[in-house]
């Protein structure tokens, strides 16, 4: 299993009146993590879109454990939890630099043709990308 790691400095605009990061910002950080993972293994989500494909989220689950606050650094760890014929599940851990976990999450995605939104298998779009996902996933179909 390959884990990609990237960091984000928490900005004031990402916090709520309680001074903690507003929950929806974790979704943005997860996208940053996915993009970093894809880049780290040698591919490009932007390149996938240029070919006419999208990867919409079809399921999402987040567990909030400890707050992140303005000025903190969020350490985002991302990996492939499961890869199947039409679905990929990404796993995430968002933590403080000392290792204290702020949130864990999973997001499930499928690939669709941009014009029709019909599902398409990654192996038909990019067999090398498919092979890499199979290699690094915790589980496969």
TrEMBL record:
Signal peptide: none annotated. Keywords: Hydrolase. It is an enzyme of class 3 (hydrolase). SUPFAM superfamilies: Thioesterase/thiol ester dehydrase-isomerase. Residues 18-102 form the Thioesterase domain. One of its GO terms (molecular function) is hydrolase activity. Its EC number is 3.1.2.-. It comes from the Bacteria. It holds the Pfam family 4HBT. Belongs to the 4-hydroxybenzoyl-CoA thioesterase family. NCBIfam families: YbgC/FadM family acyl-CoA thioesterase (TIGR00051). This is Acyl-CoA thioester hydrolase. It comes from Bhargavaea ullalensis. The lineage of its organism: Bacteria, Bacillati, Bacillota, Bacilli, Bacillales.
